[in-house]
From TrEMBL:
One of its GO terms (cellular component) is cytoplasm. It comes from Pedobacter heparinus (strain ATCC 13125 / DSM 2366 / CIP 104194 / JCM 7457 / NBRC 12017 / NCIMB 9290 / NRRL B-14731 / HIM 762-3). It holds the Pfam family rhaM. This is L-rhamnose mutarotase. InterPro entries: Dimeric_a/b-barrel, L-rhamnose_mutarotase, Rham/fucose_mutarotase.
Length: 104
């Protein structure tokens, strides 16, 4: 099981909307994440910088490519693109974080 961490940028003034959308997440999205072998997925916010930090566990990193090709996932990203830093296709801009320490 791999552990992955990354960061994204939440656009200014959208904390409440980001929370609301995730509280009302489309049921297909958690199902797709689980189908891709993702578990223990958490997202944190640094309110001083509007940086979102995410951590997750993954059974096979190759499944991330599969996930990115799923229509419902791409629609979710597009839906979130007005409140997160995203590319021209609506895909969130991610920066992978390198693990420096882990206490098992």
């Amino acid at each position: 099981m791999e552990r992955i961490a990354f960061k994204m940028t939440l656009l200014e003034g959208h904390v409440d909307e980001y929370k609301r959308r995730h509280q009302e997440i489309w049921p297909e999205i958690p199902a797709l994440l689980k189908q891709a072998g993702i578990s223990a997925y958490s997202i944190y916010l640094d309110e001083q910088t509007n940086t979102l930090f995410a951590t997750l566990k993954l059974t096979d990193s190759a499944q991330l490519d599969w996930l990115s090709q799923q229509q419902q996932m791409r629609e979710w990203w597009k839906y979130m693109s007005d409140i997160t830093l995203s590319d021209a296709e609506g895909v969130p801009v991610l920066t992978t974080l390198n693990e420096l320490f882990h206490l098992a």
